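Notes from hallway chat w/ T.B., transcribed later so I don't forget. T.B. wanted the structure written out for a chain they're using in a teaching module, and asked if we could keep both sequence and structure tokens in one place. Agreed to drop them here.
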Amino acid sequence: MLFRKSPGKFWNLMASKYAASPINDREAYERKIQAIKSYLSADNNVLDIGCATGTQCIDIAGDVNRVTGIDISNKLLSIAEQRRVERNIVNVKFIETTVFDKRFQPQSFDVVMAFYVLHFIEDIDEIFERIHELLKPGAWFIFETACIGEKNKIMGKIIRLAGYIGILPLINLLTYDKLESALDKAGFILVDKTKFGNGRDAEFTLIVRKKPEA
């Protein structure tokens, strides 16, 4: 049960390998970053959940006021901090914590991002409610995650079992139907759903908006 109860340990073990892995489809990544930037403004405060080595945080830093990157792995965050310093980025801060940290006040962010982390969350309704709470009315939630429930069901069951045993962190077999239903329940509006990559493992990037106050 090691990694099921302590997923941070898993990511600390994987940190060096993760950091050394190149982006599989650089062209698709650049298109995604440019699309994300179209939703950003110079006065925006951004939260990146599960920021890992801080790639997205650093790449959008020049387009916003402030970026806060959070992760549960202190080793991944150490790498992120090193990269921040190397690129002389001053408006990005990395914190070892979760989205439920009480230091994050309601309606304190203009944009929340989460890339390939939501499938490690068992209660998707709870985290969407929390993200909704943190965003200002009309603000943006931009995310991409592995929807393993859309793919090979046998492999999905094996991965899920590995999470229960503790070989891997616990995996949620998400589908896009589940995500969109949970988003609607939390009070979000789906604005865009785009695949920037063409590979077999490419996932949709979802751009959603918190409903403005009436």
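Follow-up for T.B.: The longest strand covers residues 135-144. Might be a good example for the class.
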